[in-house]
Write a structure and sequence with these properties.
Layout lengths: L5 H7 L1 H6 L2 E3 L5 E3 L5 E9 L5 H8 L6 E5 L7 E3 L1 H9 L4 E8 L2 H5 L4 E7 L11 E2 L3 E3 L2 E3 L4 E5 L2 E5 L6
Helix pairs in contact: 3-4
Length: 166
């Protein structure tokens, strides 16, 4: 999405918005990481106060994908920290969106990757490995499916059923 903002994408594609093929997440997310603008195909994950599956995904090659984690909106602990984000950066992930909390903010802000989360929290998550991979999730008032495309910048986050030619 080189030099085209999410606002411009919305303005240029009213028919995709009306049809539901292009959706905007509610403005709930804080911006972290050095990459404020990022996009890529979505990989979905649903967990609750547990980060084992998040770590497993980020240990894989990202190939420009975006991990979108429905953490149930929990504000009781962080499900993503600095070490997995460094690993994600090194493995070629474009970004991570977390419907929950993160920690190690200074470390994450030094990484060349895009991260969005509800807030930061100093407490760590459980390590039980419970969750669901590649399932439809709903965060920020928007249903998101594995394989859809995510576009993020400082104006917000868009989800598209297909890659946009912008």
């Amino acid at each position: 999405m080189a030099l085209v903002t999410t606002a411009e994408v919305c303005d240029a594609n009213p028919q995709l918005i009306v049809s539901g093929e292009l959706r905007a997440l509610q403005p709930l997310f804080q911006i972290y990481g050095r990459r404020q603008v990022f996009s890529g195909p979505v990989v979905t994950l649903k967990v609750f106060e547990d980060n084992v599956l998040i770590r497993e995904f980020l240990e894989e090659k990202g190939n420009g994908r975006v991990l979108v984690v429905d953490g149930g909106g929990s504000l009781r602990c962080a499900i993503l920290g600095g070490n997995p984000v460094v690993q994600a950066q090194n493995n070629g992930w474009a970004g991570i969106v977390v419907n929950g909390c993160i920690r190690d903010v200074d470390e994450i802000n030094g990484c060349d990757i895009g991260v969005r989360a509800l807030a930061s929290h100093p407490m760590k998550a459980n390590k039980k490995g419970i969750g669901e991979k590649h399932v439809p999730i709903t965060i920020g008032g928007t249903r998101i499916c594995d394989g859809e495309w995510l576009y993020a910048d400082t104006d917000g986050i868009l989800i598209s059923r297909a890659e946009l030619s912008v």
